[in-house]
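Internal ticket - ligand job 333, 1,3-dihydroxyacetonephosphate:
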Amino acid sequence: MVNYKDLGLVNTREMFAKAVKGGYAIPAFNFNNMEQLQAIIQAAAETKSPVILQVSQGARNYANQTLLRYMAEGAVEYAKELGWEHPQIVLHLDHGDSFELCKSCVDMGFSSVMIDASSLPYEENIALTRKVVEYAHKYDVTVEAELGVLAGVEDEVSAEESHYTRPEEVIDFATRTGCDSLAISIGTSHGAYKFKPEQCTRDPKTGRLVPPPLAFNVLHEIEKKLPGFPIVLHGSSSVPQEYVDIINEHGGKLPDAVGIPEEQLREASKSAVCKINIDSDSRLAMTAAIRKVFDEKPGEFDPRKYLGPARDEMKKLYMHKIINVLGSDGKAE
Ligand code: 13P
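stdout (structure tokens):
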């Protein structure tokens, strides 16, 4: 049993309370490899932004849960080395699907876990979430739960059909589970194809898809029911079209990839939404940078020569999100 506090990590409690009050959101970036982690920490340290490092099922399969945990421990020391005196870094389990998995993460030093039982019937979601909360809170680990179903696919989490969170359920759910934050469904979804073309309109000038707006009315109703309660948005990549273009220009094929417009995330950040999950945008930044090198320098075979530019591009992206979209810069001085 290792407690996250001994690793220099923090849980989300105070971080979220400040974010809700201050009208900004904390970035939750997924990581699978060293370059992504370096870029996240460099961006957070440079902007003095609190940050959540997320480990998904796919990341655990790809890189190993134990190794990722030790990388996060190393990240705290790296942040200090970069001159961030009091780093506020959370290590979070993304989409935990069982009590056993959540328990194993609590036991190995995660400071926050998500139990995603949103695909189960309501009462079963409550029972499983409650069980995780009871265990995690013994060690002061915070718990994110989910109500409502997101469409789309991310790693092993998939849902064909989305349904929005029902505001009439949130008080009962939050009270009976004791969860610390709630992921809701208001139209975001995982991946780089968040909307089918038939759900969008097309900008006649650019020919690009224009996605339907998020259901802010549902968010506001939930806020009214649970004033000040931390709300989480999954599936919040914007799918920057400049990356999609670079990828397509250099041999890739991502037709009609579309995400959540940043102005909507900016608006959400000012509300009770205090955690915004971003994974696909980092994948796109990395892929765009690597494709460019491969295309322009076919003789290159030193991984540092393409992973290095990929890391720089991801850092740029993370800084942009922190400063221009979520507004969390300077909140962890
Ligand atoms: P994106 O696919 O939109 O980046 O969402 C990631 C996510 O929500 C991880 O849980």
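Auto-summary: The longest strand covers residues 89-96. The chain has a mean pLDDT of 95.
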